[in-house]
Amino acid sequence: MKKALKLLGLAVGLLLLTGLGFVLYVNLRGIPSYAAPKPSVAPVAATPEQLAQGEKLVLAACADCHLDRSTNTLAGQRLRDVPPEFGQLYSANITRDEQHGIGRWTYQELVGLLRTGIGRDGRYRIIMPSFVHMSDDDVRSIVAFLRSNHPLVRPQATPSHPQEPSLLAKVLVNTVMKPTPLPAEPVVAPPPTDAVAYGRYLVVGRYKCYDCHSKDFKTNNHLEPEKSAGYLGGGNRLMNQQGQPVVARNITADAETGLGDWTEPQFAQALRFGQSPNGPLHYPMPKYSRLTDEEVHALYAYLNSVPALRNATHEDGAATAAR
Ligand code: HEC
Ligand code: HEC
């Protein structure tokens, strides 16, 4: 008996030591690096339609993080909406500046980063979402826009701030948060005429609604988004720029706690203008002011087709109380 206890003690001790060793290692290693991705895409000359699409997508999916309000360019900012337990994180300068921005990144390097989250130097860019299921056309439009003469990306000599990740953030990026692989096949969006399929594309590929609207960033599955815990059922605790919690809402079709009782015009109003039947919507819910009717219709059709989850968030309580 005594011997068994001793052995158990030894085993626990060893386990603790291994754990401590891992944490020390992770703390020293910091943000990991990988082989820089080399996508096989050829740069294409940007058409006016591509630039317009790129502008629309960047305003919807990038500007909230990368906008520097003092210059009104994408020169980067401190991300005040990252929970303090992750440390202090900063978005990068992605203007065309050759020294401080991405002026020297090649077309392929930009595509590689958008797809995988790995930079040209191999360093993993944390917090920056990777767009695994975005269509090749949409990715090209974004890259075309970043390399254009648009005022948002005019060169700004603002150095990107180095990241100051906490130990927890370092542990997460060395364990559960990983870069995504380059797609093995061309990625093509389904036609808008197939509303449900196109809507799925918008939710998982183009706008990544599921990333914020599922249970928790830590349990999202970027390769198979539908396998994310609580897919689209809300509950993910985000923060606004004052550091106050804002919980992402249930956008499945549950009639009481989701969007099941919403009409399509109400849904359009919420997405384009941030006005939900429950009142104004706040940051970090993006304002999708340039969504086309086709996109709204497809999103609505798809969200009504996914398994409805019953998951009340605080506005449901408020709405019930007001009834
Ligand atoms: C949630 C916030 C967030 C969003 C949304 C976001 N980014 Fe980023 N991005 C970051 C952060 C943070 C970094 C820097 C990461 C680092 O240095 O570790 C970054 C880095 C980059 C870089 C690399 C720059 C460099 O010098 O390292 C590029 C290019 C980039 N982002 C482009 C985009 C584009 C294009 C979009 C939209 C499709 C986008 N980002 C959306 C947060 C974001
Ligand atoms: C960056 C994170 C983020 C992304 C991306 C995002 N949302 Fe949201 N969304 C939120 C948050 C947070 C709220 C709650 C805002 C509040 O409480 O004011 C919200 C609220 C909503 C609401 C209001 C629901 C209600 O019950 O009032 C709808 C509808 C919605 N989002 C749909 C979408 C769709 C569709 C997409 C993709 C096209 C999307 N969201 C992308 C964070 C996000």
TrEMBL record:
Domain Cytochrome c: 49-150, 194-307
InterPro entries noted in UniProt: Cyt_c-like_dom, Cyt_c-like_dom_sf, Cytochrome_c-type_DH
Name of the protein: Cytochrome c
Organism: Hymenobacter jeollabukensis
Gene3D superfamilies, A to Z: Cytochrome c-like domain
Gene Ontology MF, one: heme binding
Lineage: Bacteria, Pseudomonadati, Bacteroidota, Cytophagia, Cytophagales
Keywords: Heme, Iron, Metal-binding
Coiled coil: none
